[in-house]
Prior knowledge:
The protein is mostly helical. Helices cover 83% and strands 0% of the residues.
Amino acid sequence: MKRAEALHPLSREHLRALLAAKKVGEATDPExxxxxxxxxxxxxxxxxxxxxxxxxxxxxxxxxPVDRAAVARMLEEHLAIRRDALRFEAGEVSLEELPxxxxxxxDHVRFEERELFPKIEDSLGPExxxxxxxxxx
Length: 137
Ligand SMILES: [Fe+2]
Ligand SMILES: [Fe+2]
């Protein structure tokens, strides 16, 4: 399914998240991984999560019954990834944890692109998606 235009900015940021996940997964030491992760987090990720939590979900909930399981999964994953950011900032991440952290970020993006965003597009429909675009501006 073609992504609604309103969601294009978020989808573009997802590409950057996937790139960061790849770098974390390929890193050979935790500091290098932390630099890649935190660069993504500070430039895009943190604001992206806020936009999803403070704009995307509330606009969806305003206009349609939300899929509660999908919302719960999204928020739980945001919490886990926010925790990863805090642990990288504190220099607490070990080499052994990198694959799991990379997979968490990667799978979160895939879930949103393949499951959550299509649900939002379907339940809002073209007209309300336009309002979502305004809100995301
Ligand atoms: Fe997200
Ligand atoms: Fe996202």
